[in-house]
Design brief:
- With 282 residues, the protein is α/β, with parallel strands linked by helices.
- The chain contains ten helices and eight strands.
- The strands form two sheets. The chain has a five-stranded parallel beta sheet with strand order 5-4-6-7-8, sandwiched between helices. Strands 1-2-3 form a three-stranded antiparallel beta sheet, with helices on one face.
- Helix 4 packs parallel to helix 10.
- The longest helix has 18 residues.
- The two termini are 33 Å apart.
């Protein structure tokens, strides 16, 4: 059996590299992911039922010759219920993938990317919640990084759950937790070839007043949440990572629970992340 990546690179050097750039694209008739072993003839031994589950694409010409291999990029979204897609004022209902932040981002980045949703309802940055155990993001993150490596990009949108009235925390406390998570990512060597992945810190959407149960649980959090952007931007600048203010794209609907964004907000945040990626990363 021939290793597909090695084969792709050898064919690139001996064949595709000699072609004019325009001819390469004219002859590249389709882009298909390959997961099965190759025969000496360069054809997959089994049909590919679901190409979106594999790790790389092979660009092939009309004669089934491999022009170039394109490795998929892994984009990990580390977040809480807003990343998970919690429907506002519901009993734990979840938006379908296409209406969640991750689904919107996947659609924008296309099949050469794999968007990984690591979202947990109630997750905190590095705090323990006595009424909602096993939500400490700092304890979970090392396992997640090891599971999904290599990671090319990771976003962190946490801090919403720290403003419950009984914890008596504020956005600065959450921002310090985000800084700790960034340190964990850098120490993990979870990026490709051990390099630190691109890191995006997202200030969570700000709260709105509501009489729903979640609104009473977060009583007093509306004013506190206004400090999310400044606190998170300060940490992002100090750590030298990317920053995005989600409140510029989305706000929980007034008819909801005051905490969770709807599908419109999820779409806006997903598009904002995609714009940042496409503008900054090649």
């Amino acid at each position: 059996m021939i290793d597909p990546v090695r084969l792709a690179r050898s064919r690139t050097a001996s064949y595709a590299a000699r072609l004019p750039l325009t001819l390469r694209f004219r002859q590249a008739l389709f882009l298909r992911k390959i997961s099965t072993p190759f025969s000496a003839a360069g054809k997959s031994s089994l049909p590919i039922e679901n190409p979106k589950r594999n790790d790389f694409y092979l660009l092939k010409d009309r004669n089934n010759s491999i022009l170039y291999d394109i490795e998929m990029k892994n984009y990990l979204l580390f977040g809480d219920s807003n990343t998970w897609g919690y429907r506002p004022a519901s009993d734990g209902e979840r938006f379908p993938f296409a209406q969640r932040i991750g689904g919107v981002l996947q659609n924008r980045l296309g099949d050469s990317a794999r968007v990984i949703e690591e979202a947990l309802n109630g997750r905190m940055t590095h705090w323990e919640d006595p009424l909602n155990p096993n939500k400490n993001g700092a304890k979970q993150l090392p396992i997640i990084l090891e599971t999904h490596r290599p990671i090319d990009f990771i976003s962190i949108m946490l801090g919403t759950n720290a403003l419950t009235r009984y914890l008596n925390l504020n956005p600065i406390d959450s921002a310090m937790g985000v800084s700790h998570l960034i340190d964990t990512i850098r120490e993990s060597q979870c990026g490709r070839n051990g390099v630190t992945p691109e890191i995006l810190v997202i200030a969570p959407p700000q709260y709105v007043d509501t009489n729903q149960p979640f609104g009473r649980l977060f009583e007093g959090a509306v004013e506190k949440s206004k400090c999310f952007p400044s606190a998170y931007k300060e940490i992002a600048n100090a750590q030298g990572v990317h920053f995005l203010d989600a409140s510029k794209s989305a706000t929980p609907p007034a008819s909801g629970d005051g905490v969770h964004i709807d599908e419109i907000g999820s779409t806006a945040i997903g598009n904002a992340i995609a714009n940042l990626i496409q503008e900054n990363f090649k």
